[in-house]
Design brief:
Distance between the termini: 86 Å
CATH topology of the largest domain: Rossmann fold
Radius of gyration: 26 Å
Largest sheet: 7 strands, mixed
Strand content: 5-15%
Order of helices and strands: HHHHHHHHHHHHHHHEHEEEHEHEE
Low-confidence stretches: 188-196
Number of helices: 18
Number of strands: 7
Helix content: 40-55%
CATH architecture of the largest domain: 3-Layer(aba) Sandwich
Shape: elongated
Number of domains: 2
CATH superfamily of the largest domain: Vaccinia Virus protein VP39
CATH class of the largest domain: Alpha Beta
């Protein structure tokens, strides 16, 4: 075997049917020195996606033993490859030497973005690796190399006390998000209002979102698995262009009955846009009003339909004489909780799914404890059970 050309040995290694055979061929390649290991690492980088677990394990060891750019590249390919076993992707992260090159950092940040704020073992392994890097890393170059769609999920991965450890990284992420243009929003076909629209004189309501939703729902193939995924992409485009909850006339009239209103987390301000058409007094805030960039992770590329002021829960106390309106607060985000804690008024109006996919359980518990539901109106919804619910504060 030792006299066989290296490419024959690599092919035999990739075709090994047992651990014993794999070890025998691997030892023969190792005996030829570091150059042979690095050549093998390069070949493995091209094939690792289709490897069985035994070869994936060998690939981690090969990446470490080969070293150099070839070994590092193999480890990065394994980390980036979703078909590799999670424990081996984690092992590949731990095997990486400290490296501040833009290529390494951008690969790890891209994977971290794909993991999202789900606190997976892989995301924790990557964060632990990044925490080992020196403080003078060139995060801006690494972030600039990322695909734009990575930026918002990445911004949501590290939060709380972790932000202090990665302040320079997330300063670079936030800076890049605010300067890049967002993706084209196909469904935002109508003129964007940067001033409150005049109330409709004839009582009509310009509600293109409801029309778009009904067209989407009537599309053929909605129950076909293959067609569904294509339609699901359109669903996300519609949410980014309009709102996460779909307003109806009945729901808007129920909400309007409790005006004046302050809305926190208004996103693109679509509900406020419709309310203002009806002559309703509403003040709308969002932490990151959409401006056509990646600035707002929920409305990438979208723009506000009406005036949306910059602000969050801290603005609630300034409007204690208004009903508080919350529309699909982000799941797991304490924003809605903070709004409720700061709110001194008597009426809270909620649009979204109840105790699922929105806000936090602590928010729902607090709302149930201090308020009672007095009215509700079902909403059309994207594969959820949405409603507009009105709550009045219990007797103090």
């Amino acid at each position: 075997m030792s006299a066989a050309p290296l490419h024959f040995l690599v092919a035999e290694l990739c075709a090994a049917k047992s651990v014993e055979e794999l070890e025998r061929v691997y030892d023969a390649i190792r005996a030829r020195g570091t150059a042979a290991l690095r050549t093998t690492a390069t070949e493995f980088s091209l094939r690792v996606a289709g490897f069985p677990v035994r070869l994936q394990r060998a690939a981690v060891r090969l990446g470490v033993e080969a070293g150099g750019e070839e070994g590092k590249h193999l480890l990065l390919v394994m980390i980036d490859e979703g078909n590799v076993e999670v424990e081996l992707r984690n092992a590949a992260v731990r095997a990486l030497d400290v490296d501040t090159s833009s290529g390494t950092l951008s690969t790890l940040l891209s994977v971290l973005s794909n993991e999202g704020p789900s606190d997976t073992e892989l995301s924790q392994a990557i964060l632990a690796y990044l925490a080992r890097l020196p403080g003078d890393c060139d995060w801006r170059s690494a972030v600039r190399a990322l695909h734009g769609s990575c930026l918002n999920p990445l911004a949501g991965v590290v939060h709380g006390e972790d932000r202090s450890r990665f302040a320079a990284l997330f300063e670079a992420v936030d800076s890049e998000r605010r300067t890049r243009r967002g993706p084209s929003i196909v469904y935002q076909r109508h003129s964007v209002h940067h001033v409150p629209p005049a109330p409709s004189r004839d009582g009509t309501l310009h509600n293109p979102y409801l029309d778009e939703f009904q067209r989407w729902e009537d599309r053929p193939g909605i129950d076909d698995d293959d067609r569904f995924w294509e339609l699901r992409d359109e669903m996300f485009d519609l949410k980014a262009a309009y709102a996460y909850a779909i307003p109806t006339r009945a729901a808007l009239e129920l909400l309007a009955a409790h005006a004046p209103i302050v809305e926190i987390g208004a996103g693109a301000g679509y509900w406020a846009y419709l309310l203002r058409q009806m002559g309703v007094d509403v003040v709308a805030y969002d932490h990151e009003p959409p401006d056509g960039t990646y600035r707002n992770m929920y409305f990438e590329g979208g723009r506000a339909w009406t005036d949306v002021l910059e602000g969050g829960p801290e603005m609630v106390q300034k409007h204690g004489d208004r009903a508080l309106f919350l529309c699909w607060p982000p799941f797991g985000d304490p924003m809605a909780e903070a709004c409720l804690e700061a709110f001194v008024g008597d009426v809270v109006v909620w649009a979204g799914e109840w105790r699922r996919a929105c806000a936090t359980q602590a928010f729902f518990d607090a709302l149930d404890q201090s308020f009672e539901e007095i009215a509700a109106e079902p909403l059309p919804a994207w594969l959820t059970e949405d409603a507009l619910r009105v709550f009045r504060r219990r007797t103090r």
